[in-house]
Write a structure and sequence with these properties.
eight-stranded mixed β-sheet, elongated, 3 domains, five-stranded antiparallel β-sheet, Phosphorylase Kinase, domain 1, 600 residues, 16% strand, alpha/beta, Transferase(Phosphotransferase), domain 1, Rossmann fold
Length: 600
C-alpha cells in the first residue's frame, strides 16, 4: 500500500490534488483533496486493493453512476468515480464537520428532540432513495455526517455496487464484509438473496436505538457473536434503558428491529410519517405542555337513538341517559373505534388510546360502566344499535378519511354484527375491521359461557365456576391474564351481573343453534362491506380445530364468499388469547391494515 498515494496522484492528476489521508475503514481509505476545476475540497474514497481485485470494475462503476443521480438535501452526492492503475475510487464533497459516530463517542446518547430531528432527515433520505430503487445496505453512524444541525447520509449505493460487482467467493477470502455487523439485518447476516430496502429499515432502527440508549442493542467480542445476536436475541425495550422514551417512540424503534422483514415498517415513507407524529408528541413534552391523554366523553341516548332500539324489550328508564367513551383527541385523518370484550369497559382500552397515533375512541357498552346508579340489561342487538349511532355521530363530526373498527375478544363478534345489515337509508361507512380473537365455535366462548351461567345467587357456585375457568390455563402467563380479566370484571359487577349475563347469553346463542357456520356468515357479510378485513387468532386447539374446518369447507364450497382473501385470517403462535390485545401488537396490526387501505 506504500505506493498507493503516488499512483493515486497520477490517476487524479489535472483534476484533483491530494492533501492528506483522513480515515480508513473496512472497504476504503479516504483522502481529502482539492478539486482543481471548481476550487473546492472533496473527499476521495479509494477501495482496498484486495477488494478491487474481487470486483468487476465496470459493473461497480455503473452502479456508482446510478447512485450519483440521487439529489437530496440529506444525501451526500457522488460527484465522480473512476478506475486506473488497479485503483477504484469515487469522489464526494468534503464535509467540514464530524460523523455521527464521532459525536456519539464524544457525547453519548442524544437529547430526544435533537435525535428525532436527525432521524427524520435520515428517514427522508432513505424514502427518497428507496422510491428510486436504490438501497444503502450500510446505514450506520459512520455514514451519517453532521453539517451544522443537519444530517447527510454518505456512501449511498456503494455497498450495493460492491455486492453487485463482487465475486463472492473471492471477496470472502479477502476478509471484507459486505455490511457492518453491528447494523446488519438478519437477512444480510444469512446472505439471503434479494435483500431489499427493509434491511435499511432495520439498520435505521439500530442507529435510532443507539442515538437514544447510547449504545446499539447488540454487541459482542466478535463479529460472529454480534451477527448471531441479530438472528436470535430480542433487543431490550428502549424504555427500560431510558424512562423518558415515550411508548410511541419505543414502538417506532422496536418495530424497525423485527427479525422478519415483513414485520418491520414496510417503507421509509411509512416510517417517516410515524416519526412526524412521534416528534409532535415529544415536542409537546419538551415544551412543558401535557401530551394528549384520553379524556372521558358521553354520548346521550336521545329519542332519535332510542327509536332505533327494539320497542318490545325497551326499558324507558334509559331514555336520556348516556354511554361513556374515551377519546385520545389526536389530530389525525384516521379514526379508530375500539370495542371491548365481555364484562370490560373503556378503561381496558386506555393504554391503546395512549399509544396509537390516530384519533381513537373506546365506547363502554351501556350498563358496563365502572360506576353507574343502575345497570339495566340490554339485548346484544340494542347494544349494537347504540354503538352504531355513536360511531355514525363520530364520523359525521370528525370527517375522517379512513375509519377502522377494532373488536377485542367477543368485541370481535360485536364488530361483525355492527358491520352487518344496516339501516338502508343511512349506511355506516367503515373502511377496515380488525377482529382480535372473535369466537369461532361454542368451544371458544370459554369466558362468555361462564358469564352466561352466572346467577349471582350462590357465591360458592360462582367461585367453583371461576376455578374451573382458571384451571384451563396452560401457562402461568395465561393463568395471570385470566385472573386479571376476571378480577377486573367481578369487582365492577359484583352481584349486579344481569347486564353482562344478558350480553353473554346473546353472544353464545348463535353458536348453540343448528345451521350455517356463524363465522362464515359474518365473514361473507363484512368482507362485502369493508375495504380491508383481518381476523387474528391465537393458535389454541379450539381455534385451530374450528379454522381447519372453515378453511376446508371454504376450499370445497366457498363458504367465506367471493371477497375472501387468504391473508385476512391470521394465526399467531406461542401467545394466549389476551396477548392478542397487547397495545403494541394491536398498533402493528393497525399500521399494516392502514397501509393496505391506503394503497388499494
Amino acid at each position: 500500500m506504500s505506493d498507493t498515494i503516488p499512483r493515486l496522484d497520477s490517476v487524479l492528476a489535472g483534476r484533483y490534488r491530494l492533501e492528506r489521508e483522513i480515515g480508513s475503514g473496512g472497504m476504503a481509505t479516504v483522502y481529502v483533496a482539492d478539486d482543481l476545476k471548481h476550487g473546492r475540497k472533496v473527499a476521495v474514497k479509494v477501495l482496498r486493493e484486495e477488494l478491487t481485485a474481487s470486483l468487476a470494475a465496470e459493473r461497480f462503476l455503473r452502479e456508482i453512476e446510478i447512485a450519483a443521480q440521487l439529489l437530496h438535501p440529506h444525501i451526500l452526492t457522488l460527484i465522480d468515480s473512476g478506475q486506473d492503475e488497479g485503483l477504484l475510487y469515487y469522489v464526494m464533497p468534503f464535509v467540514e464537520g464530524e460523523s455521527l459516530r464521532h459525536k456519539l463517542d464524544r457525547s453519548g446518547e442524544f437529547p430526544l428532540q435533537e435525535g428525532l430531528r436527525l432521524l427524520r432527515e435520515v428517514a427522508d433520505a432513505l424514502a427518497y432513495a428507496h422510491q428510486r430503487g436504490i438501497v444503502h445496505r450500510d446505514i450506520k453512524p459512520e455514514n451519517v455526517l453532521l453539517l451544522g444541525r443537519h444530517a447527510l447520509v454518505a456512501d449511498f449505493g456503494v455497498a450495493k455496487a460492491v455486492n453487485a460487482a463482487a465475486d463472492i467467493p473471492s471477496l470472502t477470502s479477502t476478509g471484507v464484509a459486505l455490511g457492518t455487523p453491528l447494523y446488519m439485518a438478519p437477512e444480510q447476516v444469512v446472505a439471503e438473496p434479494g435483500v431489499d430496502h427493509r434491511a435499511d429499515i432495520y439498520a435505521f432502527g439500530i442507529l435510532a436505538y443507539e442515538l437514544f440508549a447510547g449504545a446499539p442493542p447488540f454487541s459482542g467480542s466478535t463479529a460472529q457473536f454480534v451477527m448471531a445476536a441479530h438472528l436470535t436475541r430480542a433487543a431490550q425495550p428502549l424504555s427500560k434503558l431510558r424512562s423518558s422514551i415515550s411508548p410511541g417512540l419505543e414502538h417506532l424503534v422496536m418495530r424497525c428491529l423485527e427479525k422478519r422483514a415483513a414485520d418491520r415498517w414496510q417503507s421509509a415513507d411509512e416510517l417517516l410519517g410515524r416519526l412526524e407524529t412521534v416528534t409532535s408528541y415529544t415536542a409537546a413534552q419538551y415544551e412543558g405542555a401535557k401530551p394528549t391523554v384520553p379524556v372521558d366523553g358521553t354520548f346521550r341516548l336521545t329519542e332519535a337513538v332510542i327509536r332505533k332500539l327494539n320497542r318490545a324489550t325497551l326499558d324507558p328508564r334509559i331514555i336520556g341517559e348516556s354511554i361513556h367513551y374515551l377519546d385520545n383527541q389526536v389530530d389525525s385523518d384516521v379514526l379508530v373505534c375500539f370495542i371491548h370484550g365481555t364484562g370490560l369497559d373503556q378503561s381496558y382500552m386506555e393504554r391503546h388510546l395512549q399509544l396509537v397515533p390516530y384519533r381513537a375512541l373506546a365506547p363502554t357498552l351501556y350498563g358496563f360502566e365502572l360506576e353507574t346508579p343502575r345497570r339495566i340489561p340490554l339485548a346484544l342487538d340494542d347494544h349494537v344499535r347504540i354503538v352504531r349511532e355513536f360511531l355514525r355521530d363520530a364520523i359525521d363530526r370528525l370527517r375522517p378519511a379512513v375509519t377502522i373498527v377494532v373488536g377485542c375478544s367477543s368485541g370481535g363478534d360485536f364488530g361483525f354484527i355492527l358491520l352487518g345489515p344496516d339501516d338502508a337509508e343511512s349506511p355506516l361507512h367503515v373502511d377496515g375491521f380488525l377482529s382480535l380473537g372473535c369466537n369461532l365455535s361454542l368451544e371458544t366462548c370459554f369466558a362468555t359461557r361462564l358469564f352466561e351461567r352466572l346467577t349471582g345467587e350462590d357465591s360458592r357456585e360462582i367461585v367453583r365456576d371461576l376455578q374451573s375457568l382458571s384451571a384451563a390455563a396452560d401457562t402461568l402467563g395465561e393463568w395471570l391474564n385470566i385472573h386479571e380479566y376476571l378480577v377486573r370484571s367481578f369487582r365492577k359487577f359484583r352481584r349486579d351481573i344481569a347486564p353482562v349475563r344478558r350480553y353473554a347469553s346473546d353472544i353464545v346463542r348463535p353458536f348453540k343453534a343448528e345451521g350455517e357456520n356463524v363465522f362464515a356468515e359474518w365473514y361473507r357479510a363484512t368482507s362485502a362491506r369493508v375495504q380491508c378485513l383481518r381476523c387474528v387468532f391465537e393458535e389454541s386447539d379450539p381455534n385451530m380445530k374450528a379454522l381447519r374446518d372453515i378453511r376446508l369447507r371454504n376450499l370445497d364450497d366457498g363458504i367465506l364468499g367471493e371477497h375472501f382473501r387468504e391473508d385476512s385470517i391470521v394465526t399467531e403462535p406461542a401467545i394466549d388469547h389476551f396477548d392478542l390485545m397487547q397495545p403494541e401488537r394491536v398498533l402493528r396490526y393497525l399500521d399494516n391494515m392502514l397501509a393496505t387501505i391506503r394503497t388499494t
